[in-house]
From TrEMBL:
<dbReference type="InterPro" id="IPR015424">
    <property type="entry name" value="PyrdxlP-dep_Trfase"/>
</dbReference>
<dbReference type="GO" id="GO:0031071">
    <property type="term" value="F:cysteine desulfurase activity"/>
</dbReference>
<comment type="similarity">
    <text>Belongs to the class-V pyridoxal-phosphate-dependent aminotransferase family. Csd subfamily.</text>
</comment>
<keyword id="KW-0663">Pyridoxal phosphate</keyword>
<dbReference type="InterPro" id="IPR010970">
    <property type="entry name" value="Cys_dSase_SufS"/>
</dbReference>
<dbReference type="InterPro" id="IPR015422">
    <property type="entry name" value="PyrdxlP-dep_Trfase_small"/>
</dbReference>
<dbReference type="GO" id="GO:0006534">
    <property type="term" value="P:cysteine metabolic process"/>
</dbReference>
<dbReference type="InterPro" id="IPR015421">
    <property type="entry name" value="PyrdxlP-dep_Trfase_major"/>
</dbReference>
<feature type="domain" description="Aminotransferase class V">
    <location>
        <begin position="1"/>
        <end position="369"/>
    </location>
</feature>
<dbReference type="GO" id="GO:0030170">
    <property type="term" value="F:pyridoxal phosphate binding"/>
</dbReference>
<protein>
    <recommendedName>
        <fullName>Cysteine desulfurase</fullName>
        <ecNumber>2.8.1.7</ecNumber>
    </recommendedName>
</protein>
<dbReference type="InterPro" id="IPR000192">
    <property type="entry name" value="Aminotrans_V_dom"/>
</dbReference>
<comment type="function">
    <text>Catalyzes the removal of elemental sulfur and selenium atoms from L-cysteine, L-cystine, L-selenocysteine, and L-selenocystine to produce L-alanine.</text>
</comment>
<keyword id="KW-0808">Transferase</keyword>
<dbReference type="InterPro" id="IPR020578">
    <property type="entry name" value="Aminotrans_V_PyrdxlP_BS"/>
</dbReference>
<dbReference type="Pfam" id="PF00266">
    <property type="entry name" value="Aminotran_5"/>
</dbReference>
<dbReference type="InterPro" id="IPR016454">
    <property type="entry name" value="Cysteine_dSase"/>
</dbReference>
């Protein structure tokens, strides 16, 4: 029983077959060869960019294909923030951010003299919007926020938050890793400056993802990495860079992976993201009810709007012991700090267990998980 989809999603047959078909029948590098295989590979690769763009409701030329959200955020940090920030400037993040949306900003702050401000959460795990708004003072140049928390499942009101920042001339970056696989995402309607996704969480292969950015940002930002494909002409007295998004895509990409990600977009779209969200809300409600019925279980995060992520502990038991014993019962859950140390510190615990179902899970699996958890709790009592 796989209840770890917040970590990585399972892959449907269509994705596996798309990757297999590329290697068997079309394997070549992209954008470099005039032979038939090269043309086929390039067409399939750029086709995947188009599928992902439609999935997010953005233009393909605004979408940088990269290894995932971590790379995407670092791209913004070093190519957009580093040239702009100065001593006295500030970046705002939230208490619930993944390390990938904290550490790059700390590194940039150290190099520029900028400071980091932290927006806090209430006892339910919702962002304190009033406190967040109070942090958006004139020295703030960037607000970085998760669309959905990977620990609490909190769905942040990103449209409202981005509108709040935009009125003050503050750029916004939204980490969409936990949103894109589980709910409809219309990036154009959010009103952010940057939006980052990870492919392997949305039924695609690992090592895939994307950064969406407003066109004016992409045109103004210098390249993050140098090498092949990101250039038009190289001379020893100066180099002319390619147009965006290609100027940010140095080297040979994960061609098969992105073709698989395109297939994943087709697969998710064929089901319908509204249908996926509705199904997962049913699973979340059932999971929460089953856990609430077990003595000694503490759930972290009961936000007003929440995705299918439930972090929990059993009184007197360590998260790793719980996860290990559940694994022996055939249940896969995540244990640890979930790359969210500041959030663990906020709750005063070193780690939690996290059960994160997806639309492919069943109510019967959740029932079996709850029964296994009761058994494990009794063993640890």
């Amino acid at each position: 029983m796989y209840l770890d989809s917040a970590n990585t999603g399972q892959k449907p047959r269509q994705v596996i077959e798309a990757v297999d078909d590329f290697f068997r029948n079309h394997n070549a590098n992209v954008s470099r060869a005039v032979h038939a295989l090269g043309s086929e590979a390039t067409e399939a690769f750029e086709g995947a960019r188009g599928k992902l763009a439609r999935f997010l409701n953005v233009r393909p030329n605004e979408l940088v294909l990269c290894s995932g959200t971590t790379f995407a955020i670092n791209l913004v940090a070093y190519s957009w923030a580093l040239p702009r920030l100065r001593a006295g400037d500030a970046i705002v993040v939230t208490r619930m951010e993944h390390h990938a949306n904290i550490v790059p900003w700390q590194l940039i702050a150290e190099r520029t003299g900028a400071t980091l401000k932290v927006a806090d959460i209430d006892e339910r795990g919702d962002l304190d919007l009033a406190q967040l708004e109070s942090l958006l003072t004139p020295e703030v140049k960037l607000l970085a926020v998760a669309h959905v928390s990977n620990v609490l499942g909190t769905v942040n009101p990103v449209r409202e938050i981005c509108r709040m920042a935009r009125k003050r001339g503050i750029a916004t970056l939204v980490d969409g890793s936990q949103a894109a696989p589980h709910r409809p995402v219309d990036v154009a309607s959010i009103g952010c400056d940057f939006y980052a996704i990870t492919g392997h969480k949305m039924a695609g292969p690992t090592g895939t993802g994307a950064l969406w950015a407003k066109r004016e940002h992409l045109e103004a930002m210098p390249p993050f990495l140098g090498g092949g494909e990101m250039i038009r002409e190289v001379r020893f007295d100066g180099t002319v860079y390619n147009d965006a998004p290609h100027k940010f895509e140095a080297g040979t990409p994960n061609i098969a992976g992105f073709i698989g990600l395109g297939a994943a977009c087709d697969y998710l779209s064929s089901i319908g993201m509204h249908n996926i969200e509705a199904r997962e809300q049913e699973l979340l409600a059932h999971l929460t009810d089953r856990l609430d019925a077990i003595d000694g279980v503490r759930i972290f995060g009961r936000a007003r709007e929440k995705a299918a992520v439930v972090s929990f502990l059993v009184e007197g038991a360590h998260a790793h012991d719980l996860a290990t014993l559940l694994d022996l019962e055939g249940v896969a859950v995540r244990s640890g700090h979930h790359c969210a140390h500041p959030l663990m510190q906020h709750f005063g615990v070193p780690a939690t267990c996290r059960a994160s179902p997806a639309f492919y899970n069943t109510f019967e699996e959740i029932d079996a998980f709850a029964e296994a958890l009761v058994k494990v709790r009794n063993l640890l009592a």
